[in-house]
């Protein structure tokens, strides 16, 4: 990783969120930072990245050489169903401001974070990096998905026109400490963790939205953070790269519920409300490209990572986002 005049300053947008906090832990507690590097973790309090002037001011203040771009308007299925337009407009503004300002300030490399929900709804499986633009995404989160797809369009245009090597990662469903555990607007796993915690505490039934049949690949935030640093330092392609556990590690939502129940030692009844949407039934992703580069990378076993997340949530219940 090379910076201007040998100095390295890595700016992490969305630095206090799920992935940002995981990267901070890897950098500060696992020795992920290298000598001479400065790491800056931004929160939404530092700048409104939907505002071009505030975005420019934060780049002027810190003069980053590298950017890990995590900031986004995010949420679970039911928030997407309510606010597709908001997801489109806010994420388009954030991404355009960050990428354009990075270019203006001669940032060497930007690694943006996308999502597997950007892939076409009607497709063949497993999905891979070449299939992003092959058809419309699932209608439930079209606003967010199209806004994230435009990051790839933006990156390719910068490379074609200016030679910039800005790229993007495409993780599957991320979970871990510092997630948003909101019952209405959180992603499926943190929302289920919160529901199960409350059901055990209050002696009530656990109510699960949907049939439990939908399939997902889950990646632990700390594993993703370690891979983010590798992408920043060593991955030199403009084409995005899927960061995911293997196809064989895909599990059903019911499997995830059972694992959460075990982690909390919950013994009450579990009810599946099949009148609620399952969202996309599957979006199996191939990690073959990652494995070509990193055949040695070991993912944290799902049960272990989930137990650590549940324990963290219980220990930090009063202060965590929910």
From TrEMBL:
Listed pathway(s): Nucleotide-sugar biosynthesis; GDP-L-fucose biosynthesis via de novo pathway; GDP-L-fucose from GDP-alpha-D-mannose: step 2/2
Matches recorded under Gene3D superfamilies: NAD(P)-binding Rossmann-like Domain, UDP-galactose 4-epimerase, domain 1
Domain of life of the organism encoding this protein: Eukaryota
EC number assigned by the record: 1.1.1.271
CDD domains: GDP_FS_SDR_e
Pfam families: Epimerase
Coiled-coil segments on the chain, per record: none
Root EC class: oxidoreductase
Gene Ontology BP annotations: 'de novo' GDP-L-fucose biosynthetic process
GO molecular function terms noted in the UniProt entry: GDP-L-fucose synthase activity; isomerase activity
Domain NAD-dependent epimerase/dehydratase span(s) in chain numbering: 10-246
InterPro entries: Epimerase_deHydtase (IPR001509), GDP_fucose/colitose_synth (IPR028614), NAD(P)-bd_dom_sf (IPR036291)
Keywords annotated in UniProt: Isomerase, NADP, Oxidoreductase
Protein family according to the UniProt entry: Belongs to the NAD(P)-dependent epimerase/dehydratase family. Fucose synthase subfamily.
Function: Catalyzes the two-step NADP-dependent conversion of GDP-4-dehydro-6-deoxy-D-mannose to GDP-fucose, involving an epimerase and a reductase reaction.
Family matches, as PANTHER family: GDP-L-FUCOSE SYNTHASE
HAMAP family to which the protein is assigned, alphabetical: GDP_fucose_synth
Name this protein carries in UniProt: GDP-L-fucose synthase
Organism: Astyanax mexicanus (Blind cave fish)
